[in-house]
Amino acid sequence: MKKITIVSLLIIMIITLTGCTNSNENLKLKIKQTSWSGWVEEDNSSEKIEEFDVIKGKKYTFNSNSNLTFTITKITNNYIIIKTTEAFSDKKDEIDLTSKKTKFKINLDKELELATPQTDGGNNYYLLLTEEK
Questions:
Q1: Taking the model in full, what pTM does it have?
Q2: CB-based contacts of 30, cutoff 8 Å, min separation 6
Q3: Rounded Cα gap, residues 98 and 64, in angstroms
Q4: CA 37 – CA 95 distance, rounded (Å)
Q5: Which of 1, 31, 54, 86 is most solvent-facing, going by the fewest CB within 10 Å?
């Protein structure tokens, strides 16, 4: 009985120290969406913002009218990995219209911008992983 208890405690300690957890109640994922069109000037009045708890394996849908649905596949203390159901361009300089990417790394306190790979209009998503203290 003592061996089982000691082994169980060691396993729990290893999992905790390596960051292999299913959730981190201190981590929050904030998402802001803006829409754009090549035919009109940018209008931020349609901006939408939501915040999510970070739970591994849970399927999230941002704003029921948007195309951003994702699952968190990895959680560490410094970043998370998400897998989206549709392809997005991780917008660094310009939108990659041929992007097939569905996996994205979001670093703690560093905003990631994703865009729908379209030419005449679409959505930009700004994802920010934060830690509440």
A1: 0.76
A2: 49, 50, 51, 52, 127, 128, 129, 130
A3: 25
A4: 13
A5: 1
